[in-house]
Amino acid sequence: MKKMLGYGGSLSLAIALLMATPATQAAVFVQCPGDDDGDAVIDNPDPNREVKCMHLVASDGFSNMADGKLQYIFGFKDITGTPPEDAVDAGLLGAQISAPTIELKENQEFFLSLTNAGFTQRPDLFDGHTVHFHGFPNASSVFDGVPDASIAINAGATLTYYYNIKEPGTYLYHCHVEAAEHMQMGMIGNLFVRPAQDGQAIEYPAGSGRVYTKFAYNDGDGSTGYNVELPLQLTGFDPVFHDASMNTQPLPFADMRDTYALFNGRGYPATVQGENFYTGANAGPAQIENATPYNPNGQNSQPVTSGREVTVGERLLVRISNVSTTKFYTVMALGLPMQVVAQGAKELVEKYQTSSVNLGGGESYDVIIDTEGVAPGTYYMYITELHELSNNQQSFGGAMTEIVVKAPVL
């Protein structure tokens, strides 16, 4: 009995300890050094440590496809700054696709708390959730997010992940519990780490007069310097699969077929709209009408725009990742020069020019587009699988966005 209970003393001591412990339910508990009130905001920073904290909540919700279809999704929401007693309410129906972008710096300590708020529309599901920092060399498997080697968070509970950030580059993150389902449903997001070299002024090429202070990697010579940045995450949705999940029907894994190809959770032309396309002033009447019954708090389900403006002579860093569960994609920028500077969060010794990059699921590329000598105008970046450039049955959409090159102001 002693061994089974795990106490070294007598049975009476075990009973006394159990009786002295009040009955509690799972609760939100955020771990963040220097945070005084549990909201993941550092109130008293330690001058000897570079620390960043963030609080995500996992739940369900709805997104609007570019053809106006309301799509049921699972996802994450950033609730950093929310008191712990309000965390679950703040996260319900708050799923976003793509998930909140995580931006980190080399040499930071990152404390990421994940709360599982459960599914509002599917209370019959008791799925656990994790965060898998894809490609990151974790010191301990407990923080890797793969459920057979680490912890999955049950509904109503919170886990804080710890990462010692040492390797700059373009990564991604996703839930790894029932990964094919949860990633198809939308539990994916952009993640990148800025290098220690950031902030230095480096001329590249030498003698050109072009000076950069932002870099993709610690290149030492400025070759990954850039002016403007664009995270571009590829994925796809199968509306039959999402509708089956919403309607509590068997999930058609074997027949999974994505007919919505997406950049950052949107299809063209929604890809180029502002950050509040679905809930703000840019939303169309049909989208507002469709979203309102499921979105009483005005949640912004697709906050990441893919449109960018650059001025002639600037360099654009495009951080491309593919999190599709069904497709390889090839991405190109028609009429713009593309230089691949890194693959899989590793800077290339031999950088190369290309017209396109092909990505399988879980892959990432860092591509620099140099607009020196490029004529002003609107250029299109899109997938070359032309039959995928549609929003389900609506033509002329899908994974496509616009890069606007502006003339310099004289």
Spell out the key features of this protein.
410 residues; mainly beta; Immunoglobulin-like; 6-stranded mixed sheet; 5-stranded mixed sheet; 6 helices; 35% strand
How would you characterize this protein structure?
It is a single chain. With 410 residues, the protein is mainly beta. The chain has one domain: Sandwich (Immunoglobulin-like). The chain is built from six helices and 25 strands. Strands 14-13-16-21-18-19 form a six-stranded mixed sheet. A five-stranded mixed sheet has the order 15-25-22-17-20, with no helix packed on it. Strands 2-1-4-6 form a four-stranded mixed sheet. A hairpin with a 2-residue loop joins strand 18 and strand 19. The chain is globular, with a radius of gyration of 23 Å. 44% of the residues are buried.
Overall pLDDT metric: 88
**Portion in strands:** 35-45%
Rough outline: globular
The CATH C-level name is: Mainly Beta
Number of helical segments with 4 or more residues: 6
Largest sheet: 6 strands, mixed
Indicate the percent of residues in helices: under 10%
Count of β-strands: 25
User: Kindly, what is the distance between the CA atoms of the first and last residues, rounded to a whole number of angstroms?
Assistant: 84 Å
Sequence of strands across the biggest β-sheet: 14-13-16-21-18-19
Oligomer: single chain
Domain module tally: 1
